Amino acid sequence: MRILANENVPGPVIQALRQRGHDITSVKETMPGSGDRAVLERAQSEERLLVTLDKDFGELAFRFGLPAGCGIVLFRLTGSNPESDNARALAVLESRTDWIGHFAVVTNDRIRTRPLPRKTK
Predict the structure, then answer these.
(1) For 24-43, what is each residue's pLDDT tens digit?
(2) What is the residue extent of each domain of the chain?
(3) Angle at the Cα of 40 (from 68 to 60), degrees rounded to 5?
(4) Please, are residues 39 and 70 in contact by the beta-carbon 8 Å criterion?
(5) 57 near 63, Cβ under 8 Å?
(6) What is this structure's pTM?
(7) Are the CB atoms for 69 and 119 separated by under 8 Å?
């Protein structure tokens, strides 16, 4: 899977995904301090699933209609146990292959997905 991990995605999750053979680019490593729009544009142009803990990406895709067909996975985990949160993130990301074209919100006990708006010409 091709992934762009936002700056707030924990390092252990990025490392584990790389070890499992996923093609993952980290914003923290390649474009630190970049704004959300630039991050979303990069994910879209490189056809990478955007993984984040920042709910602003939903607003960019739905309210402002920015192209986001690459797919966005927003993690909203409790943060009370980093190891559990990291394990949940890994399990969820590897649990499916149909992230493209969807906005997903992942909590401790469920995954909600909805289609992203399609860009019309």
Answers:
(1) 999 999 999 999 999 999 99
(2) 2-115
(3) 65
(4) no
(5) no
(6) 0.93
(7) yes
Burial 54-90 (b: 16+ CB within 10 A, else e): beebbebbeeeebbbbbbbbbbebeeeeeeebbebbb
The three-state DSSP-derived secondary structure of the chain is CEEEECCCCCHHHHHHHHHCCCEEEEHHHHCCCCCHHHHHHHHHHCCCEEEECCCHHHHHHHCCCCCCCCCEEEECCCCCCHHHHHHHHHHHHHCCCCCCCEEEEECCCCEEEEECCCCCC
For residue 85, the one-letter residue type is D
Other Cβ atoms closer than 10 A to 20: 12
| Cα gap 51→94, rounded to integer Å | 12
Domain 2-115 of CATH type 2.60.40: no
pLDDT tens for each residue of 99-113: 999 999 999 999 999
Residue 54 in tokens = 């920042």
Q: List C-alpha distances in Å: 23 to 3, 93, 112, 119.
A: 6, 13, 24, 26
